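Allow me, if you will, to draw on your knowledge of protein folds for a short while. The matter concerns a single protein, recorded as an amino acid sequence and a row of backbone structure tokens. Could you please explain, in whatever detail you think fit, how the structure tokens follow from the sequence? I remain grateful for any guidance, and I place the record below:

…
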Amino acid sequence: PRSIIAVENDIFFASRRGVFSIGNEPGFAFDVLRTNEISARVRSIYQSIETAYMDNIAAVYATKSNVNLVIFSYTTSGGRWNTEALVYDRERLAWYKWTNIRANCWLNYIETSGTVKVLYGDDYSGYVKEILTGSNDFGSAITGTFKLKAEEFGEGLVRYKKLKDVSVVLREPVGSVQMTIYRDGVETATS
């Protein structure tokens, strides 16, 4: 029940089969509802959640300044609190996996000035924490690894590819960005 969330004109919810949206189907003279699975791209991650822990999934629709995210926090198995989250970016139609979060409940708090704060309850620490602020993750640097199909080398050394140009484009990053390039397992450049 904590995974049912209103997202603009739709309702998103987590079920045993995946994350779905339900809403009106345009173009019909009468009311028609439709459901769509939005978690097909992360189905293998989602299906790793044991059925007994599906009731622990908590969701929030985080709309803060230029952010438009639907976040589903969960535990895969055996935990007393949620330890990971799947984040759906509505603007980019993309999924992210967040592994350093223990969110068991969510809240969009609107201050009297109109500023929105996205908060969650952390049962592990007992604190209410704010997300989507600053450039660190509660004192730890935020690290990310990106793997794209075009640059995937497969398992082992079955295939060999040459990358002639490596470029990274970041859209208004906050804080510092560090990138390390490894060539044949040896660090060749850090910037």
